[in-house]
Description:
There is one protein chain. Helix 1 runs parallel beside helix 2 (51-64). The protein has 270 residues and is an alpha/beta fold. It is built from nine helices and seven strands. It has a single domain, classed as Spore Coat Polysaccharide Biosynthesis Protein SpsA, Chain A (Alpha-Beta Complex). The chain has a seven-stranded mixed beta sheet, with helices on both faces. The two termini are 27 Å apart.
Amino acid sequence: MAEDSSPVKVSFVVTVLNETESLRETVDTIFALAADDVQEVLLVIAPRTTASSRKVIRELADKYGGCIRVYEQRLPCLGGALQEGFAEARGDFVMLMASDLETDPAVAPRLIEVMKTGDWDIVATSRWLKGGGFRGYNPLKLVLNFLFQKLFRLLYRTDLTDLTFGYRLYRRSVIEGIVWEELRHPFLLECLLKPLRCGARVTEVPCPWRPREEGESANTLLRTFQYVRTAVKTRFVPVSRFCRPARPGGQTGPARRTDGSFMQGDPRCK
């Protein structure tokens, strides 16, 4: 695909539970560095999202107007919230990220640039590439992460180095029609593995990880082993079970754009 600097329509899907200042910094950084490409920032909130988080959301909505959209999740847990966020997103592209600064919002323009200039369906981030890295990561979880990545690479015969980091930019047509199952954190793995098995073209860019400064992660050490179950299950289930036709004409799998064009950004977000 030839280089194209035109704006694109990106829906930033961001889950919010108990984040305040990190949420504010995430959203402010998105608009400061990628405003031309923002279709919307879709904030997915849970019934137990704190009052302080909701207050910050109202302030952000006042500041950025119609470019902030709030969605009250119905499905439980992180995976359920992201499934609904994917379904609700209006942009041609969908950015998956967090509101706790573990996914550095300053890297978002790089993901968009790579998507614009390459024939990719998904641009993922990797903590294991040069320029990425881990700061303050639990040492045992770091060893397990390294081993899991090696296992997943062998299992799926891929050169990707980080299949569990939930910071990615998707061509929306790639995720339409895929049947999701995971409701907890392993959804972050499922939503890369299933598109891969459906034929999606994926590349990576480096991104550092740093620990959240607000609240506590719900992704416990014990739950990290559930990723292995998800990886094995997804590898051996027939693709036809989850990769369904997403467009008229019965085409199965990721629907790739053929003209290489990119839509202009929503004028409400200028």
